[in-house]
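2024-03-11 09:14:02 DEBUG pipeline.ingest accepted 1 chain
2024-03-11 09:14:02 DEBUG pipeline.ingest length=151
2024-03-11 09:14:03 DEBUG pipeline.predict start
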Amino acid sequence: MSTHIERTFPNLLLTGYQITSPATAEYNCIAWAAEDDTAWWWSDAYGLGYWPPQAPRMETLEAFIAAYGLIGYQPCSDAQLEAGYEKIAVYVDAAEVPTHAARQLPSGQWTSKLGEWEDIEHHALDGLYGNTYGRVGQVLRRLIEGGAPGN
């Protein structure tokens, strides 16, 4: 475990986590959720980092939903593991500005890249709730290639 992570995200001590890769500035959480570990994704108006050209370059939840929509994700109602789908949770601060994204693993656990810090696997989305990332503002899902939806 890591004290800088636990100081910043104290809920992880309660919900559980493990570090899965070393720190790097090559990519961030938004890219990691999209399964891209080659670029730093961000939608700011200054054009810093990569952003899908067809998505609005704005720091809004709608712009992030549009960006993930370009790779097949659509809004859904909950973060429960769902057969045939993969999910992303987009976190927002008190002003509804996106701050973070986590991707659900086939096990039902979540994976996050913590800024320039390490990647982690965490048991619950609320492990990252707090002043740094806020809370989950929207969960998105996409059909797994070749998979069939459950239910």
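2024-03-11 09:14:41 DEBUG pipeline.report The chain has a mean pLDDT of 94.
2024-03-11 09:14:41 DEBUG pipeline.predict end
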